[in-house]
Design brief:
mainly beta; Jelly Rolls; seven-stranded antiparallel β-sheet; globular; RmlC_Cupin_sf; Cupin domain containing protein
C-alpha cells in the first residue's frame, strides 16, 4: 500500500501544457511492467494541454468547474463528477476555455508500460 498527500499544489511547466496550470504532487507506483500515475490538475481560464497521446489508458475525473475534452473529431464539455476515458494512442487535449470565469480541475490517472512515452502533437 502507498499513501500520499496531494493537498498542496504547485505551478508546473510541462511540454504538453498551454499555460502553467496548478498541479498537486503526483502519486506514482509500478506494478509489474505498468506504471501508474495520478495527480490533480487545475487549469485557469485559457489554459489547456496541446494535442497529445499516451502509451496507455488515461482517465480523468472532473472535480471542479466546467472544461473541455477533445479529440481530433469531437469536442465535449465536461463538469464536476464526469469521468473521461482516453484509450491508448488516442490524440486528445483537455483544459479550460478563454471565456471561462472559473478554474477547471480534474484528477488524472494514467496506466501505461514503463517504457511508454507521451507524444505531443501540434496544437490545432
Amino acid at each position: 500500500m502507498k499513501v500520499a498527500s496531494t493537498s498542496e499544489k504547485q505551478e508546473l511547466e510541462h511540454p504538453v501544457q498551454v499555460g502553467t496550470p496548478l498541479i498537486s504532487e503526483p502519486v506514482s507506483d509500478e506494478f509489474e511492467n505498468t506504471g501508474v500515475d495520478a495527480a490533480e490538475v487545475t487549469f485557469r481560464p485559457g489554459e489547456r494541454t496541446k494535442f497529445h497521446t499516451h502509451a496507455g489508458v488515461q482517465i480523468l475525473y472532473i472535480t471542479e468547474g466546467v472544461g473541455i475534452v477533445a479529440t481530433r473529431d469531437e469536442e465535449q464539455e465536461v463538469s464536476e463528477g464526469d469521468l473521461v476515458i482516453f484509450p491508448e494512442g488516442e490524440e486528445h487535449w483537455h483544459g479550460n476555455t478563454d471565456e471561462a470565469e472559473e478554474n477547471f480541475s480534474h484528477i488524472h490517472f494514467l496506466a501505461e508500460s514503463k517504457d511508454g512515452e507521451l507524444e505531443i502533437q501540434e496544437a490545432p
